[in-house]
């Protein structure tokens, strides 16, 4: 039996465009940016003010953090979503945040413009099936050990559940290389562009795990056809409660935006 | 911050023994067997009758199947659990089945003696945290891209949630080798025996994906220290609704049990 | 003990520029192109004539082919080098070809302007040590399972043997993904640029194994900082004696060159 | 075109038995043991005296060491082979050592009873082809990124070159797991037993990289059908010039031999 149908180019030749509050993913090249985790209203206000001035399309911030260790910071939960929602409205930016369960999905769908499903939940098929109950667009990240076929089939689960608004996100896979946190598989972007009509963006922050590699890999992502990039930005990466080592500070992000400008057209 | 504490040998030197209705995992070497999926009462009755006669300790059967494709058989759900429960009682065998969400967890906990968390949900931390609400023992399978440290830390999530009865299960990891479905990482068994006091079993059926490799790898699993093995058995593997190519038929299973006998002591 | 010294930025901050008969690798972005294997004088004449007109800097062609199977075409050997040398002179293009042993090294060094060491021989340290006997520049490809540290350390072997003219080449690593022949690890390019003063190019032909992915990945390679790309081109890929499925025909190569033009500056 | 023929069971159904000076590999289960590197005559004398008393069949010791770094100990070369040869004669043990080039191959073939081709040279096809010039049996180790098909095809190179005496050796592959140096892929042993008539042994020392894991993995190797094991033993692992962390001392080796005894039959 065929693994996927609805997501394939055979089923629909024309690129799908996903609308997120006025941002058309798949039409224009878009930038999603923000901190790994929402830490406080002040932090989000500082970040959003900066990102708004720097042409970022969508603001990100995690309220539910699926951390490897139970002893690590798990996120501000609903309080984080309330902050994110308030800041998104203040700066007129659409917001995206991750859902990690049916309960958090309900809340994320209420407060946010786009629902993220993280790499660790790409094969949480019960969560994927529940997305059909919501009309908000989905940002689906590739699992750490997911083949491209499994990645597309996870998207198929969402579409068959009744939600057609899926944006894919390449964020690195597990390999033997240890210099980077993951191996960003940019060929996946070029392949998905061939096999599927869905938009795909890349996340060089998680894909490399090192802030100094984010700029070159953001350029490579756009050059090979990604519809956008997702970048972790923090006012003070050394003090970040999670993923500080892969977050850009404001200066680095400004430089990134200048240098990728020719690739956004 | 340290990733895990409670599961470590530093925390508890003596091997933990997990009781599943009279079966003491970690004390005696145990066999869990049964079909990948519960398909019908007749199928389960046939299998259980055979397995009971062949010294199997615990009967398995999936009612909720996390399948790669939404078009593949998804399991009989509660109906499957009812069948499994009835057959378990008839043959006086403890039963184990997989939970894939909070809703299915409630049902699996009601009908079964042991709750399985599958590889695809090892990083579904919200599901792991919910296990503290139940007293039933847990069978936690290693994720396909999970390092040994992440595997132990997933067990730590369960223990910190309030359920100390965790049995680990090595079931193969993703590598470049394509001859097998996964690469059974038996060294993981030996390492876990060093690092942790929790019992660990191996699943050579999923670990290889090919029935003809199950016997040698079952022997290897026991030889390197596994506390037991989990084997897929089906009355007619060619007609199985899932995973037929890795299921043993009755004849092969009988031979397996004879040949592993010296390693069970 | 430190694994590598001479190749590191600590040892030499300024980028090394490798001269190959008037082509300055590390200064200008360069294109190496040609067929996987030299098959005949006519084939090479047709290809070189086309590539010369399309601004290719260096002509490639294998005479010694390290094939997985002993029954596959093993190359024309010295006859192939003689053809390559003749055609290189006719079109005034520097040529590069692979050496696979001390004997073939002697011949490749005699006939060619640059000596390639392939992925399968990156850990053939005796071959690496022999390179110090020649002054010709070396093109060292990354091994299929080589970490970035091991890749740099292989270059260190060459430099300590007495040959400082090493150009590195990322060509994909082995991962669980099977859609592509290898996983092109472009982050390696960005990392090498940080850690080492040596130039590095990328090979999207071997890196993907599929001609239709060569163009997007060539762009990504240049965008993330590669000093050039190596592309397999064949007059008639369907008739190629090796690697036809990853070779571009002339039409596709022309399009590639047009589209990467902005990234060559 | 088919990748391999001569090594396959289709070509020859009966197990091949390789004779190494009175040791019949493929008939009896054999033990190869010794230090990673020959360091001195005294070291080898001490080791061989101990191993001879403990029923080891074949003595190993590296004279040519293919080390990742050019700054690491590279072996005693011919001097090492002379020592190994002398000690082998003194204790009446067949000896095996690694060849890394045509020059060292000539010497290893002269001094030793069996020629080892290491993992780093499994795809050095020119070295493989040269083995046909010698009648000594070959011990071929699996490459770190070699699929089982590529492993068998490397053996096919040796046989087509004219040397039919090939013993295979599983020694671990590269995966994302970092707790061990390599991931010992024991399923490879069971698969080779199905696909090929050649004997295969396992190397749990390199396969794990940690001495404390050698014993359980040696047992597992024998349990799944390996025709023998290869173990690194050193009189004082803390002072070993290479691979000390994976070498057993005499006490541990004695225990290993006692515990694997039931599996040798």
TrEMBL record, chains A, B, C, D:
Keywords noted in UniProt: Transferase
GO BP of this protein: aromatic amino acid family biosynthetic process
Residues of the DAHP synthetase I/KDSA domain: 18-260
Enzyme Commission designation: 2.5.1.54
Protein's UniProt keywords contain Transferase: yes
Ranges in coiled-coil conformation: none
Keyword Chloroplast in record: no
Source species, domain of life: Bacteria
Signal peptide range: none
Molecular function as annotated in GO: 3-deoxy-7-phosphoheptulonate synthase activity; aldehyde-lyase activity
Class of the enzyme per the UniProt entry, highest EC level: transferase
Name of the protein described by the UniProt record: 3-deoxy-7-phosphoheptulonate synthase
Source organism per UniProt: Alkalicella caledoniensis
Classification lineage: Bacteria, Bacillati, Bacillota, Clostridia, Eubacteriales
């Amino acid at each position: 039996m065929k693994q996927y149908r609805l997501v394939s180019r055979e089923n629909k030749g024309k690129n799908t465009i996903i609308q997120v509050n006025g941002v058309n993913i798949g039409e224009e090249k878009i930038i999603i940016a923000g901190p790994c985790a929402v830490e406080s209203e002040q932090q989000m206000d500082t970040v959003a003010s900066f990102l708004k001035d720097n042409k970022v399309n969508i603001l990100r911030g995690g309220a539910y953090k699926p951390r490897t260790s139970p002893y690590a910071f798990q996120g501000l939960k609903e309080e984080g979503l309330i902050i994110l929602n308030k800041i998104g409205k203040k700066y007129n930016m659409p917001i995206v945040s991750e859902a990690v369960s049916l309960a958090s999905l309900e809340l994320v769908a209420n407060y946010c413009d786009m629902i993220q499903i993280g790499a660790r939940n790409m094969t949480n098929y019960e969560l994927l099936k529940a997305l059909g109950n919501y009309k908000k667009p989905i940002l689906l990240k590739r699992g750490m050990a997911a083949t491209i076929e499994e990645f597309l089939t996870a998207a198929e689960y969402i579409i068959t559940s009744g939600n057609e608004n899926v944006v894919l996100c390449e964020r690195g896979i597990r390999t033997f290389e240890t210099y980077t946190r993951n191996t960003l598989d940019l060929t996946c972007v070029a392949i998905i562009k061939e096999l599927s009509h869905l938009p795909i963006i890349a996340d060089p922050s998680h894909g490399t795990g090192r802030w100094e590699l984010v700029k070159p890999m953001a350029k490579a992502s756009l050059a090979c056809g990604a519809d956008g990039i997702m970048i972790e930005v923090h006012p003070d990466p050394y003090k970040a409660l999670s993923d500080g080592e892969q977050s850009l500070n404001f200066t680095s992000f400004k430089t990134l935006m200048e240098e990728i400008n020719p690739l956004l057209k």
